[in-house]
Amino acid sequence: MTDRLGGLLRTLKVWDRELPAFDPEAAPAEPLELFCDWFTAAVAAGEVEPHTMTLATADAAGDPDARTVMLHGADERGWQFATNRASAKGRQLAARPRAALHFYWPAVARQVRLRGTVTAAGPEERAADLARRSPGALAAALVGRQSEVLDAYGTLQRAADAAWERVQREPDATVPGHTLYLLAPDRAEFFQGDARRRHVRVNYRREEGGWVRELLWP
Length: 218
What we know:
Layout: H1 2-11, H2 31-44, E1 52-58, E2 64-70, E3 73-75, E4 78-84, H3 88-95, E5 98-105, E6 110-120, H4 123-131, H5 135-143, H6 153-169, E7 178-192, E8 200-207, E9 210-216
Antiparallel strand pairs: 1-2, 1-5, 3-4, 4-7, 5-6, 6-7, 7-8, 8-9
Helix pairs in contact: 5-6
């Protein structure tokens, strides 16, 4: 099995195509503007699900965890994602309100890494976020019990069917515990891949007077 995996790995190529140019000297003074530019470029390049990102947290003991979540928005306050506060990541954020986000857009060989403090949005913004969800996403939120042990798949099927029926009756149903989180970065790195491994890494550090921009070795 390991030989088969190794053989497959040796056949794979990385960035075997023309990649976009990125002049680090032209990078804006703040990371949000560059993120919006890069996100737009990823969508234009046909990136599949460019709004997915890896969220990394740690529990009370310091053990790390990571999973893929959806970006719900970004503004001067931070990058937004949602979950139930009773979920594993919700509990971890309650214990340690620091996290990291990672975007990877292979179509353009670009990564964005964000690290900072996480806070919960207020009730009005939380309700507005829930109202924007698709029926399927709302039904999944209504099922709840995320990361709990499941006794049988049939139990999930029955709960999901009941949630779908409720969404049809109550398209504006509320979900107890639904929480919109904002990650305010104090560090933001933008990575542009290069086929010759001369990768460009622009790092932003938040300091007392604002953002400091610097280049990093690959």
